[in-house]
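Following up on my earlier thread - several people asked me to post the actual chain instead of describing it. Fair enough. Here it is, all 232 residues.
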Amino acid sequence: MTTDTEEPPLTVDELAAHAGVTVRTVRFYSTKGLLPPPVIGPRRVGHYSQEHLARLALIEELQRQGMTLAAIERHLQQLPAGLSAHDLAIHRAVVASWAPDAAEDVTREELEGRAGRSLGEEELERLAAMGVITRTADSFRVDPGLLRLGVQLLDVPIAHETILAARTVLLEHSRAAAHELSTLLRDAVGEGESVAAVKSLSAHMQPLVVQALLTTFQRSLKEELREWLKDS
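Reply from S.P.:
Thanks for posting it. Predicted structure:
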């Protein structure tokens, strides 16, 4: 299991607070096998990583999609091994893209609580530029599916303009892929089928498509980096 060693470990109380769930929920998910066990430290205190936090966020998103805990367990078991918190955040963002708009209005304090850190004005402006949040008169409208990923991007050591350009590339290609996949689904269902039949097929395809996109993108990116480093 790949963990994010740069971040300090979390106690179960801190993990629950950052994820917006109860300690009882964390322990319940652990007994169901949805969360890997914590690292046991001195005095037998369990230490949780950013990967645990990202998995909780992914579980929340899958539940929002209407998946049962049994289906979520199967979905998590099918993910590639060794996914980092960043990989899981990307996976959650892809899953969230299938769902209807789920933006929420939160106060700055609530936003920082969900982000797990304080956010300065410059950071808020960068999150807004990435489309993660929208400022209103006295609150922030936030996309929960993108918040964790957006916060992680704040610490990426590349120019903000490059991140925005990368976002544009990803959006354009993901929309093109979604269009092609939608065409395939319509052809598979055939004309005259009910809306319920289309929704049923889409619901079965979503986890498979998300997993395929994540795995394919990871492999393609590794190949590109390998070629880049070989030529440099």
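The two ends are 31 Å apart (CA to CA). That should answer part of your original question.
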